[in-house]
Amino acid sequence: MAGYELSTFWGRARAYWDFWWGDHAFLRLGFSNAHWIGPDMIRTNHPWPFQLDWWKKRGLKTVINLRGGPRSAHYQLEKDAVDRLGMAWVDAPMGSREVPSRERVLHAKQIFETIEYPALMHCKSGADRAGIMSVLYRHFHLGEPIQDAVSELGLRTLHVRQGKTGVLDYVFERYLNEVEPKGISFIDWVMSDDYDPDAIKADFQANWWATLLTDKVLRRE
Is residue 170 part of a domain? Predict the structure, then answer.
């Protein structure tokens, strides 16, 4: 894994500098956008190493990273902290402006069926990718209907459905309006030929002002 030499003082200092400025980590020092979404899962924005230590002391067993980016400062500092604290680490990259592929939905289901709890999952802001994974957690792990679980995508966690990130909501709207009335389960729909991520995304229309807010003002990843 190239990028930062965390075993040296200057290598770690450079990683923290890039994490602070390049990843806007300074905004997350006092605001973690943390919410328990079940008895054994918490969703947050990207945690600092000291925040992971805080969660570890409260029994956290597994960290699920939804961002990717193995050469980045945010990834390497977090992976280093997780290893040092003796927690399990799961990589499950998701897109904030994409309809999740069949493979990603199945991977999420497999994660929630096999990880050690309690667990924490995060993206950068804790709003969009953490939102759709929270819907899947509540549906697959807690057994809640999509109609209830979809409440994880909302302003409570700073998710803006009117912008391009609203395509995540649109996936579940399509299911609830067109598929569930036929008696087809969410996972059966995803596994069928009728589930076409490209076609679903093409049908979605975002509002220009909300896209400006999420992409230019908030600079959501």
Answer: no
